[in-house]
Design goal:
The protein is built from 13 helices and 12 strands. It has helices at about 10-20, 25-30, 35-50, 65-85, 105-125, 140-145, 190-195, 200-205, 210-215, 230-235, 250, 255, 285-300; strands spanning about 55, 60-65, 100-105, 125-130, 145-155, 160-170, 170-175, 195-200, 220-225, 245, 260-265, 270-275. The protein is an alpha/beta fold. It starts with 9 loop residues before the first helix and ends with a helix.
């Protein structure tokens, strides 16, 4: 096998030019080098490929059988490389056939994903979105995920290479209207003492509430942990379990609107939702387009 680290791929461009022009002078004109530079490159290729490749004729040069065999593969390979590079500079949503992979915090998935589906249907009908849970290990996440819409604890930016704030929202404590503590002031101690239903870490991607409680010497009782937000409003409405949610859900989910809501008594906790991506893909046109679409969906809903 040829070690590509020791192989100058520019030599293949010169080889193709000699094949297409049939002369050293013509190839030199095509690639913008002097005839002597092209001759020198050909000499290197002959050594590396162990073949004469071209022999002189009265009209220029003629390829050997080995050169003819190589030509089809070299043309194909250079074509693939050229196409790959060209795609880095263009992305046409209406024509693209591509799968993007995302992680989306469960609190906003019900808001984001239906609107994203509408945008894809109208703008990029052959583009697909694959949603992965946040249980994917952080060590490998950016090898598998194009971007995240994640919960970020506090007011700080997330510790990832690139991010854009989509919204920051107050967190409220939810309980049924007839809950025994519905009329009591919500304190950190009362909040920790009550029984909770919560989203799993794989759905939210954060343990900030438990971390903040632990710093205060408090621990809440997890009566139930569920995989997605959809189950929580009905569980809270039909039991004495409490839950937390961004205040915005009070207007987005009719089931939540019927519950009693009190501010979360942990002032240091603010749930921010951030769009996050890897620096290595920041300039890739397809990902730039999708990040723009996600940002516009939040902006169109009146978010900062």
């Amino acid at each position: 096998m040829v070690n590509l680290r020791n192989f100058d791929l520019n030599l293949l461009v010169i080889f193709r030019a000699i094949m297409s022009r049939g002369s050293i002078a013509g190839a030199a004109e095509e690639v913008g080098l002097s005839p002597s530079a092209v001759s020198h490159a050909l000499a290197r290729l002959r050594v590396m490929l162990n073949d004469e490749l071209f022999f002189r004729t009265a009209d220029g040069v003629c390829p050997t059988d080995r050169a003819r065999e190589l030509n089809a593969d070299i043309e194909s390979g250079l074509g693939f490389i050229s196409t790959a590079i060209s795609r880095q500079h263009q992305f046409v949503p209406a024509e693209a056939e591509r799968v993007f992979t995302m992680q989306v915090a469960d609190y906003v998935s019900g808001f984001l994903l239906p609107r994203l589906a509408q945008r894809l249907q109208s703008e990029a009908p052959r583009v697909s979105i694959d949603i992965l849970p946040f249980s994917v290990s952080s060590e490998s996440v950016w090898d598998r995920v194009d971007m995240q819409v994640r919960l970020t604890p506090g007011r700080l930016k997330p510790e990832v290479v690139r991010s854009r704030r989509l919204l920051a929202d107050e967190i409220v404590v939810l309980m049924r209207p007839g809950h025994p503590c519905a009329n009591e002031p919500m304190t950190a101690e009362l909040y920790a003492a009550l029984s909770h239903v919560k989203l799993s870490q794989s759905a939210t991607g954060t343990t900030v509430i438990d971390d903040v409680l632990a710093a205060r010497g408090l621990k809440r009782h997890m009566a139930m942990t569920v995989a997605n937000w959809f189950e929580i409003p009905d569980i809270v409405a039909n039991s004495d379990l409490i839950a937390i949610a961004p205040r915005r859900l009070l207007s987005l989910d009719a089931r939540v609107a019927g519950l009693t809501a009190a501010p979360l008594p942990l002032e240091e906790v603010v749930f921010s939702f951030d769009l996050c991506w890897d620096l290595r893909t920041e300039r890739e046109p397809g990902q730039k387009w999708l990040r723009k679409v996600v940002s516009e969906i939040f902006q169109e809903a009146g978010e900062p």
